[in-house]
Amino acid sequence: MCFLPWTLAAHLMLSFGSEETPLMKALQHYGSEVVVQKMIAEGKAGSLEPGAGYDGPIHYTIPNLRNSTKFMPILNQLIDAGADVNEFDRSGPPLLDAAFANDTEVIKFLIKRGADVDRQNCYGETALMKASQTGHAEALIELLNSGANKNIRSRDGTTALDKAKTERIKGLLNGTQH
Question: What separation, in Å, do the N-terminal and C-terminal C-alpha atoms of the chain show?
Answer without folding.
Answer: 39
